[in-house]
Amino acid sequence: MIRLENVTKTYKLGQEKKIHALSDINVTIHPGDFISVVGPSGSGKSTFLAMAGLLERPNEGNIYFDEKEVSRLKDKQKTKIRAEKCGFVFQFPSLIPTLNALENVILPKTLDRTFSSKDLERGKELLVRVGLEDKVDNLPYQMSGGEQRRVALARALINEPEYILADEPTGAVDEANANIIIDLFKNWNQTGKTIIMVTHDMKLAKKASRLIYIDKGKIIREE
Ligand code: ADP
Ligand code: MG
């Protein structure tokens, strides 16, 4: 469970101006949730994800992972929690251009010392699950944009995270690939993953089980 309690995030713009990216947000993310966060550009969606995924520190309020307040832990401890519990899919796939699909997928594993040949097998399995069994050896430039996204999805799962946090995972991909991505999320949700997805595509957002509408840094509605 992730709980945001009275979370406020402001950014400084120059010397005096402040941007209230999030104001007094209260949300509980339950195990098994599939949440879409929707709202106009600049409304605070990515900031919300950065808070729930411990990527940034709130100015005010608390963030709980399973009842433990974690927002004020040291960076190293937060990195550990993120690595163990969270899989991220960002707006751009950010693959390493000189590594093939499989190497990109297992990259988070090779960074920790527990890497073994089992991880290679798991990486291959994940590529099968995202429909890329015939692209294992391809470098990113040898794949379409939609395929690169799916590699990033497989990479997000390599550490077997409890939570998947995705920021516009279907941005700039064609409709066919967007549907594949959403279907994968639905499938992973049914097998127990908790999913928090930011999107401005209402049609895709509605495929989630819970919708959170954000505007001007505030939650204005929930369905
Ligand atoms: P969204 O994802 O809904 O488009 P964001 O959460 O990215 O919105 O941004 C919310 C507001 O905070 C925007 O006004 C944006 O310009 C501002 N903002 C986001 N990140 C930063 C940052 N690192 N520094 C300064 N302002 C930021
Ligand atoms: Mg954003």
Indicate the topology.
Layout: E1 2-13, E2 17-29, E3 34-38, H1 45-52, E4 60-65, E5 68-69, H2 75-85, E6 86-89, H3 101-110, H4 117-129, H5 145-157, E7 163-167, H6 175-190, E8 194-198, H7 202-205, E9 210-215, E10 218-222
The structure holds adenosine-5'-diphosphate and magnesium ion (MG).
Report on the structure:
- There is one protein chain.
- Helices cover 34% and strands 28% of the residues.
- By secondary structure, it is of the alpha/beta class.
- It has a single domain, classed as P-loop containing nucleotide triphosphate hydrolases (Rossmann fold, 3-Layer(aba) Sandwich), CATH 3.40.50.
- Strands 6-7-8-3-9-10 form a six-stranded mixed sheet, sandwiched between helices. Strands 2-1-4-5 form a four-stranded antiparallel sheet.
- It is globular, with a radius of gyration of 17 Å.
- The mean pLDDT is 93.
- The structure holds adenosine-5'-diphosphate and magnesium ion.
- The site of adenosine-5'-diphosphate has 11 residues, from strand 2 and helix 1.
- Residues 11, 19, 21, 39, 41-47 line the site of adenosine-5'-diphosphate.
